[in-house]
Predict the structure.
Amino acid sequence: MKNAFKATFKKKDGSLRTMIFCNVEQLPIQIIDERIKGSSVTRKLVEGSRVVYDLEVRDFRVFNEKTVIGQVEEILLDDVFKDGYVF
């Protein structure tokens, strides 16, 4: 894993939230194995949305790029670990 991302976005209730996250493809396989359980449910994401891993709450979230306020900032993963965000 190389970098994480930081973005502020508008939630469905209208409030703003800043999230530090990484793309699912960046996760170590053991995180995926531990957190994703088999399910026959298939979810369809709205256009512009993707599943990411929230490093603050340590769980998967749907990130809608259409609700971003400002820019998505790329941050060094080393800085994320220094701030205490771990898998």
The helical segments are 29-35, 77-82.
